[in-house]
Design goal:
alpha/beta; 7-stranded mixed beta sheet; 17 strands; 11 helices; globular
Length: 380
């Protein structure tokens, strides 16, 4: 039996803690916040009774059957299709860009084949499509790009889209049908009791001790450490702080129904916020007379801010290489998750990678073989 220290009680830390505890190891989970579940934390608003996604909206979606089966071990997952609306130039559209969006925007009534040819004719030829801007213009043309993509992206990232990688945009589909689902995955759901209840259930094991409002002490005599916090923080920021975007939230209580949908994106650059979430629409099986909205504003993360989105441009990638080299030179610690590997990860990928990491750590503890610093290459 080994003594394992886990830094962080989000999904990465909770999954690995549970897997190692079930394998017979003692696990201490240290979480610097006063709650578990990380940025997926949910809590009932005491006045309205609405379940609030405290750090922004999170909809679970996956094609990984074993990940789906795993989360269902720890709570009831209710089928839920995440749909997003967008306000652009004073009108409301559906996102991602689909046949309805195209016909609304251009005042047309095209079918799929006609719309595909129409958009292709508007697409701008680019020698390179490595940047967000070039890829977007080559994908949908200037009118749709400027209406739905350019302003929102400038606000979200605080950068010219010409400086951002195309990979950010490639996460969103372009559809020539009236399918307005935000995600294509087979399993899409919301936990009936919120994400925090799921994580609490994962951590509810006799061999797991959870310490809230506590930073993991790396000099404690653990047999192995799992670090889900920022990789640069582990090394005392010796190569500088990695760049992140953070979010400021304004939670407000209202009567009735404010926007009629769960998330409204604001695409115009002169509107300071990026989106507004109305949380009760995440639980259509519940009835509430009051409603809670959360307005999001994005800005550069400072030393005391919660890091949300890794920037991963040229300077940050150079810093990351330095930290990865340092991590691979030490023993007794494995870096996992969004912060530990400095990558944008959806929840299902986070859980999948945590299960994979737990299997590697469990095997190393069992046979005495070296446990790697990374199970997934952060530089890939």
């Amino acid at each position: 039996m080994a003594d394992i220290g886990v830094a962080g009680a989000g999904f990465s830390g909770a999954v690995i803690a549970r897997e190692l505890a079930e394998a017979g190891h003692r696990v201490t989970v240290c979480e610097t916040r006063d709650h578990v579940a990380g940025n997926c934390h949910t809590a009932r608003d005491p006045t309205s009774g609405v379940m609030v996604h405290v750090y922004g909206p999170h909809a679970f979606h996956t094609d990984h059957e074993h990940v789906w089966a795993y989360v269902n071990r720890f709570g009831t997952m209710r089928p839920y299709t995440y749909r997003v609306k967008a306000t652009a130039r004073g009108r409301v559209y559906s996102l991602p860009i689909n046949l309805h969006t195209i016909n609304q925007f251009f005042g047309t009534a095209m079918g799929p084949a006609e719309a595909r040819a129409f958009v292709a004719a508007k697409a701008e030829q680019r020698d390179e499509t490595a940047s967000f801007e070039d890829y977007g213009l080559a994908l949908v043309g200037r009118e749709l790009y400027e209406a739905f993509l350019d302003g929102y992206t400038r606000k979200q990232w605080g950068l010219d889209p010409a400086e951002l990688p195309a990979s950010i945009l490639k996460r969103l589909p372009l559809r020539f049908s009236y399918d307005d689902r935000y995600h294509d995955h087979r399993f899409q759901a919301i936990p009936a009791g919120g994400y925090t209840a799921i994580v609490q259930a994962m951590l509810d094991h006799p061999r797991i001790e959870v310490r809230l409002s506590t930073e993991l002490r790396r000099d404690d005599p653990y047999d192995h450490i799992v670090w889900t916090g920022p990789i640069d923080a582990y090394f005392g920021f010796e190569h500088g702080r990695l760049g992140y975007r953070t979010l400021d939230f304004r939670h407000e209580l209202h009567d009735g129904d404010v926007q009629g949908c769960v998330v409204m994106n604001y695409c115009d650059a002169d509107v300071p916020h990026t989106r507004i979430t109305e949380h009760k629409h995440f639980a259509p099986w519940e009835t509430h007379d009051l409603t809670v909205t959360t307005t999001e504003l994005s800005r550069a993360a400072g030393p005391g801010d919660v890091p949300y989105y890794p920037i991963r441009l040229v300077r940050e990638k150079a810093q990351l290489r330095e930290y990865v080299a340092r991590a691979r030179a030490v023993t007794g610690v494995t870096f996992v998750g969004r912060l530990g590997t400095y990558r944008y990860l959806d929840m299902d990928v986070t859980i999948k990678e945590a299960l994979d990491a737990a299997a590697v750590i469990r095997a190393g503890l069992a046979d005495g073989t070296p446990i790697p610093a990374f199970v997934v290459d952060p530089l890939a």
